[in-house]
Design brief:
Elements: E1 2-5, H1 13-23, E2 26-29, E3 46-49, H2 58-65, E4 70-73, H3 83-88, E5 92-94, H4 101-116, H5 119-127, E6 145-149, H6 153-164, E7 168-172, E8 185-186, H7 189-195, E9 198-201, H8 215-220, E10 226-229, H9 238-247, E11 252-255, H10 278-285, E12 289-291, H11 300-318
Parallel strand pairs: 1-2, 1-3, 3-4, 4-5, 6-7, 6-9, 7-8, 9-10, 10-11, 11-12
Helix pairs in contact: 4-6
Length: 329
């Protein structure tokens, strides 16, 4: 069995080598995206990709013509794949829905604490040799109310961490979890936005979540409130967010993902700057914004799981079995 993995990073090498040693599967790796590896399709049995730009529609026919039966992404999000078109060409699609809920939850917790402690403002002042305390009084987390929108695997893990620290945890989800009784108080989105000191987003990207938070939602939030987005960029209306931050409707925001990040994150822009994405350039320049380059997931355990689960799924499909992570729609 021979599997092609594209967009492979250096930090994945050890996990891939360990998988080969354990299973005997031959894995061909490329740092380039799938589009740059089409000449290798005829020589492999399976394909695993990881990228942020949407796969060109013409590639599905090429995969099928090469005799491939599947395409996998070693990420939770699979919006880069045109699933119906893949199915039309006889390609089964899998993702890695859970590689480490703890990794993203811990990142969100860190950012919640940073917002409560106003570290964005502290860092700015110290960088400018301003060591005054004025306006920096923080809120201890056990006295804070944290709202989680999307209380699934990641949101639920975050809720447990917050509850252990004594925070009041509100949740909004279309499918409330009984196992979080006593940890999460479920309520409406409006009530959650109005009451929370920090709101943390952990929703999938789909038709119902695009623009989930916009001008109307920001107007409901307390002017002292913060917002964390460790889900997907398009769930926030970026233009409305910038306005809310500029006008004081929101105190601060921590963004690990933002619309337009595809050409910005995981790329060195020290020379050319961020002019290609004006909204990200504006956010970067704001003193009440904490930007991280989509690294909430990026831990030792998560990387290992992403590699292992994706490869396991390919083997299942190629052996005529069913993967529990197959995308049906």
């Amino acid at each position: 069995m021979k599997i092609l993995m594209t967009s492979v990073r250096d930090d994945e090498a050890a996990a891939i080598a360990a998988y080969t040693a354990r299973t005997g599967v031959e894995i061909i790796t490329s740092a380039a995206p799938l589009e740059a590896n089409l000449d290798q399709l005829a020589a492999v049995d399976g394909v695993i990709m990881q990228q942020r730009n949407r796969l060109a529609d013409a590639i599905y026919a090429q995969l099928a013509e090469a005799g491939l039966k599947q395409i996998s992404t070693r990420t939770a999000g699979y919006d880069v794949i045109n699933v119906p078109l893949a199915h039309e060409h006889g390609l089964r699609v899998t993702n890695v829905p859970v590689y480490s809920p703890r990794s993203v939850a811990e990142h969100a917790l860190m950012q919640i604490l940073r917002l409560l402690r106003k570290s964005y403002e502290v860092d700015q002042r110290v960088a400018n040799n301003d060591y005054r305390w004025g306006g920096l009084q923080a809120k201890e987390i056990h006295s804070a109310t944290i709202g989680i929108i999307g209380v699934g695997r990641i949101g639920g893990t975050l809720a447990k961490l917050l509850a252990a620290l004594g925070a009041t945890v509100l949740g909004y989800d279309v499918n409330p979890r009984d196992d979080l009784a006593g940890i999460v108080t479920y309520t409406t989105k409006t009530d959650l936005l109005q009451r929370s000191d920090v709101v943390s987003l952990h929703v999938d990207l789909n038709e119902t979540s695009i623009g989930l938070l916009g001008a109307a939602e920001f107007a409901l939030m307390q002017p002292t409130a913060g917002l964390v987005n460790a889900s997907r960029g398009p769930v926030i209306d970026t233009t409305a967010l910038i306005t809310a931050l500029e006008t004081g409707e929101l105190a601060g925001v921590a963004l690990d993902t933002v619309s337009g990040e595809e050409t910005i994150f995981n790329v060195d822009h020290q020379e050319d700057g961020l002019t290609s994405q004006p909204d990200i350039e504006k956010l970067h320049a704001m003193s009440n914004v904490i930007l991280t380059p989509h690294i909430a997931f990026f831990t030792n355990i998560a990387v290992q799981n992403m590699v292992d689960i994706a490869l396991d799924d390919v083997q299942l499909i190629l052996n005529g079995e069913t993967s529990p992570h197959e995308i049906e729609r």
